């Protein structure tokens, strides 16, 4: 027998889209996005009004849905972590080994998930909510702590559980069943056979458009915050020309990282992020109000644990007695619904990338690694920086609050300026982190987007570079031609898109639960075969979706349907 080249694992057992479906996936998103941008730029007020009304409708009628969705995500993660399936099922089959060290893995999943969000909100949210924190019961005289507790809640365990549950669905479908790393193949076999083709195209279009628009608007906001950081220590005034310069610089860095791949580009930048983040937080702790930070973290961690269940279930029921005329009348509209929609809208690329880099870990290791560890990091980060912000805000006559009210992106930098000795150095580090965290987010997004568009083929490095340049072009058009108001309009529209996409995710989660509960001996054999690198073993799928193994010329039916 002639020597054969090793096969790529996991072996592909899914079904490619028909040509017409692939054309829709490749060409509909850019056409739709160009049309959306033209509409927003030509009639910004009209489009903003429509999106405002849609946000009011979603907030007023479906706050309960987003609350229940978040609780369902937490429940599924708990089930996976504590059930025997969590210990038995390993992503990539029983013999799979992790591709990355724990430090590299944590660094990459944290950087692609919430790094840029935490840079933006770790000071802004505790300051904005220091006088307005419903549900939370605190000791008299400690009202300012409520903003910290809500920040822990919004950026901690529940948010990561929402990312994790989507990532589990994609990871198990891809690494264990040999499907493409796409939403359609993790979802559609729950549907009748006749509906799978069309439904798969719709699901993938939603994921692609959410990814492109989410990354583009975030790119624009990252450019504005990076400029705010530059202004804090250089005095350089913000302007469209500076925004364009920043977008080109960040886009170039992201393109280089995407070209060199996960193991070299993404991993190196993510690990650098982690080191700089540790330096920033430790320096703020040591040179800032250390005693106050220790005391406040202890106090607010306890308040978070005590109030976790009430916050998780809070829908503000009295606000539903009358129809909302504006989402701004709802506290949840400003915060919980807004942030949960943000998480859902960003789930396609965050979860897709997390799934890609998590081969070799058991479901229990995966869930704990994606929820518990990042949540602790988030809480320490917010606890240190948010507590310092409250301390300096009180001692400056609400100076930090004034900076946040003037420009939300400047809150972190206003706080860092107040830290003695190392404040100027921390301004530089924080500005660098804005850039590197967004580069890793964009890098992760292009990997996920490449899978959505090109699967089952593996996209090349230059294709990922083209995706980075395309997203940068959209961000440039939105920001330099339309300004921050247009960017905010498109981002709000993208988040509203989380409403229909949440239904897709719920179907995918139900399908994954069904797959895991139906995991019998034949499925376990399928998982082994899908991840068998032996070039002499050939997998064959019949017209009914049943898989057979052909090894050294001998046909051995496995009896396992591609569920």
Query: How is the main sheet built?
Result: 3 strands, antiparallel
How much of the residues is beta strand, in percent?
under 5%
Q: How many domains is the backbone divided into?
A: 1
Compute the average pLDDT: 84
SSE topology string:
HHHHHHHHHHHHHHHHHHHHHHEEE
Would you give an account of this structure?
The chain has one domain (43-187, 205-231, 240-305, 323-393, 410-534): Amino acid/polyamine transporter I. The protein contains 22 helices and 3 strands. The chain has helices at 19-42, 44-82, 84-88, 102-113, 115-128, 145-155, 157-176, 183-187, 196-234, 240-260, 262-287, 290-313, 331-334, 336-356, 363-395, 399-406, 411-417, 423-454, 461-482, 484-496, 498-517, 521-530; strands at 537-541, 546-551, 554-561. The chain has a 3-stranded antiparallel β-sheet with strand order 1-2-3, with helices on one face. It is globular and about 70 Å long. It starts with 18 loop residues before the first helix and ends with a strand. 52% of the residues are buried.
